[in-house]
Specification:
single chain; about 300 residues; alpha+beta; globular
Length: about 300
Amino acid sequence: MSSRITVLSWNFENNGGGDAAKRVQAHERLVSLSPHLVLRQEMWRADTDGNAILYELENVLGMRGWLGPESCTAIFADPRFFHPVREWPKPGPMWVLPPTALTMRYLPAGTEATPLGVASYHLNYASSTNRAAEAEWLSTWADKKWTNPQGETIRMPCLVAGDNNSYPVPGIEGDPALPVLNEIKDRPHRLHRSFIGPDGTRVMDTRPDEALRTAGLEDVARHWSAKHGDTAAVSRTVNACETHGPDSRIDRLYATPELLDAVTGVDVIEVPEEVSDHHIVRATLDGVRLSDILNQQPNTLESLVAP
């Protein structure tokens, strides 16, 4: 089995807008990237006709799929590598577009290894206030506990990815610059992507990123770029447009710190605008190192995540 684990996150616009051929071709593009985990957003209408579209995409990807509440998000996993331990169908009260969340076992690590929390999410488009609350609820997946075979309760590692509809806190070379509020031509979009700061003026919304990183969920692209000087990791995930402003890195993958040592790369796979308005975020992990991390003893695991 492969020792390289590939994780993809993609907001495929409107799930192809009812165009079955476009939908299949888009997921064949994902297949070409040899993924082990796919975290999808905008899975609209995938629950119609008894989840027919979900099962269609399972077949295209050759993976098992889980569809979140209201077809907002989904997770697909290669069953040779990942197996569900439990689902989390009630992710909290604040979600406009509920996430798909699972506890998953990484099979090569063995049956006594600590499982992972995995979530695919889509923060609210129109309300920075709601996004802040959603990010706080998203942080609870970094606080899930697991009782190991020795009877010890430990905190599980966690990996989440999705569309943040907001910006990363500036500070990493190569990260797209924050938009200038008054240069965004679409007036409602100015509201959607900003909030009133402490001095009473509107500022661009970076609160979800700040909240998640405060909770110990690190922006994997930011981490990789800072550690290795690889600015490709923080490439745009949404192109500039006339109404919404410049290139931005809206789509991000976060992980608890102990997982960062397994990361071997992060990049963005651009797709044509006629396919989707978001690009694909890809992270790769060393499967052997991932197994080692998940098999750490509780005191060692705690030392890995200490601030």
